[in-house]
Amino acid sequence: MLRRVVLKMRLQCLFAALCLGVGVMAGKYSRELNEPKPNDRDGQAVEFRIAKLNQVWEKAQRMQLSPVRQAELHSDLKIQEKDELQWKKMKVEGFDENGEKEAQLRRNFHVILAKYGMDGKRDTRPLESNSLKDHDIKEEDAFEDPRLDKLWNKAKISGKFSDEELLNLKREFQHHKDKIHEYNILMDTVSRTEEIHKNVISPLEGDTKEHVLQQKHTELKHKMRDLNQGFERLRKLSHEGFSEDSEFREPRVIELWEAAKRTNLSNDELESLKEELRHFETKVEKHSHYKEQLELSHQKLQHVEALGDKEHIKRNKEKYDTLAEKTREMGYKMKKHMQDLSNKISRQGLQHNEL
């Protein structure tokens, strides 16, 4: 009898452990999202576990950001939160002694502020992206770069592209324009922090700061190389058109695939990565669809609010809030997945170069 009880207890423990294991494996990119929202010192629920990120989010609520842009900011802040919490754990364990990771996190935070016009500077660069309005190709559309504008105008009149291919090509041009914007923000951030680092107190501190500055300039150099490679690809695509065996449609996925092909990965490794990128592309497309639906939902809510029917307003507001939350979650998962893929490609490339 005692043996049966012991056996039964062991089986229950084993079942519980299996369930726990499945729970840990499931939801790789949603674990953080399923956690209850943190509280501030007064016990009030807040959006993020880091005070400065909450301050940015609260400020964003008061700004006239579009719903899609607000959702994008939220997912960027979630990525920043994840990275900063990971860094704090690293710091406790004795890593990042030279402050390289800390400097990168500070730089990423400044980039977020500048990207959404929250850095206290007057930014004349457009904040809104045309990614949701690909079907509205206007003649006066410009990419704010003479080389891109010239290339785009040639492609439009070349006769090599169908209407659908032109939309896909415009998305690639828009993606490249956004990358130029991000590079300019980063360059401005590095220039401003360089002035701060000139105030050296001790020779030892000076060596550390010099190392951090070198790391920043290396990052800028890599981004400029990526921009040059991206422009060269656009130039080739504009002249030759899309090939029938094009692997992907989404600019971000194409960029990752091109980076992977430049590494020394074996054919088997590239095939495995290609399959993973296909899954990622589906996720990107789904996120884009949700952003479009969020924009439409916001327009409908504005229309209903103008009519003044309280019950109708309540129903549409609930639908809009649910869609906004879902879009934020998907944005975080998509950006987290892209971050993981970028790191994986960089890591594998380095490993093969060392071999």
Automatic annotation (TrEMBL):
Lineage top rank: taxon: Eukaryota
Cellular component annotations (GO), alphabetically ordered: cis-Golgi network; endoplasmic reticulum-Golgi intermediate compartment; endosome; plasma membrane; rough endoplasmic reticulum lumen
GO term, biological process aspect, one: negative regulation of very-low-density lipoprotein particle clearance
Domain Alpha-2-macroglobulin receptor-associated protein residue range list: 13-123
All residue ranges annotated as the Alpha-2-macroglobulin RAP C-terminal domain in the record: 143-355
Keywords carried by this UniProt record: Coiled coil
Coiled coil stretches, renumbered: 263-290
InterPro entries: A2-macroglobuin_RAP, Alpha_2_MRAP_C, MG_RAP_rcpt_1, RAP_D2, RAP_D3, RAP_sf
Keyword Coiled coil set for record: yes
A molecular function (GO) term: heparin binding
PANTHER family found in the cross-reference section: ALPHA-2-MACROGLOBULIN RECEPTOR-ASSOCIATED PROTEIN
Protein name: Low density lipoprotein receptor-related protein associated protein 1
Species of provenance: Astatotilapia calliptera (Eastern happy)
Lineage: Eukaryota, Metazoa, Chordata, Craniata, Vertebrata
